[in-house]
Design a protein that fits this description.
The complex is a heterodimer of chains A (about 110) and B (about 110). With about 110 residues, chain A is an all-beta fold. In chain A, about 0% of the residues lie in helices and about 55% in strands. Chain A contains no helices and eleven strands. In chain A, strands 2, 4, 5, 6, 9, 10 and 11 form a seven-stranded mixed β-sheet that branches. Chain A has a four-stranded antiparallel β-sheet with strand order 1-3-8-7, with no helix packed on it. The termini of chain A are far apart. With about 110 residues, chain B is mainly beta. In chain B, strands 2, 4, 5, 9, 10 and 11 form a six-stranded mixed β-sheet that branches. The termini of chain B are far apart. Chain B has no helices and eleven strands. In chain B, strand 6 (about 55-60) and strand 7 form a beta hairpin. The chains are: A mainly beta (about 110), B mainly beta (about 110). Chains A and B meet through strand 4, strand 5, strand 9 and strand 10 of A and strand 4, strand 5, strand 9 and strand 10 of B.
Chain lengths: ~110, ~110
């Protein structure tokens, strides 16, 4: 099976702009989770989607949002970018439910805000 | 108190030795536990998961879980230089929310 794919892999944006990141999960996986990784804060949970519904959300401001489509692909959006949003954004897919709870990460999108 | 705690290391072991990585967690209701390996500049790679008390072995890796003590560990037997990486302990706190420790950096010297 193909792994989790994320696009784009690298992105440079200016403060105040918005950005959309995309994630395609492993075929058959219905759960997609998003994480932010920074040197200072480590890996932090943003949100999780299952069957197009957000089931869980981390402690991030409302500028961070996401959605999931009927084919399980997911996007996350960050509006009004701040310098502190520079990070590696990772998505992870999981069968969830009876299929297992293991999460498999994609390669990530490296976002730099200038 | 942090939800998931790991010693940041580095943990240095010679090639061929056993590396022992430890993790404690605070949420007694947690049911599933994961170990990820992350090489510099790469994304985390799942290497072990464990849901029940006791030991789980997969090749050179053994995960150990003690829910009463809220303790998870990872043993790497016959450590190789290619095992040098940061090892992240993660705990599922509900609806696929993984809480990660800060990671332990492992250095395996030839």
């Amino acid at each position: 099976k193909a792994g989790v794919t994320q696009t784009p892999r690298y992105l440079i944006k200016t403060r105040g702009q918005q950005v959309t990141l995309s994630c395609s999960p492993i075929s058959g996986h219905r759960s997609v989770s998003w994480y932010q990784q920074t040197p200072g804060q480590g890996l932090q949970f943003l949100f999780e989607y299952f069957s197009e519904t957000q089931r869980n959300k981390g402690n991030f401001p409302g500028r961070f949002s996401g959605r999931q489509f009927s084919n399980s692909r997911s996007e996350m959006n960050v509006s009004t970018l701040e310098l502190g949003d520079s990070a590696l954004y990772l998505c992870a897919s999981s069968p969830a439910g009876g299929g297992g709870y293991e999460q498999y990460f994609g390669p990530g999108t490296r976002l730099t805000v200038t | 108190q942090k939800e998931v705690e790991q010693n940041s290391g580095p943990l240095s072991v010679p090639e061929g030795a056993i590396a022992s990585l430890n993790c404690t967690y605070s949420d007694r209701g947690s049911q599933s536990f994961f170990w990820y390996r992350q090489y510099s500049g790469k994304s985390p790679e799942l290497i072990m998961f464990i849901y029940s008390n006791g030991d789980k072995e997969d090749g050179r890796f053994t995960a150990q879980l003690n829910k009463a003590s809220q303790y998870v560990s990872l043993l790497i037997r016959d450590s190789q230089p290619s095992d040098s990486a940061t090892y992240l302990c993660a705990v599922n706190t509900g609806f696929q929310k993984l809480v990660f420790g800060t990671g332990t950096r492992l250095l395996v010297s030839p």
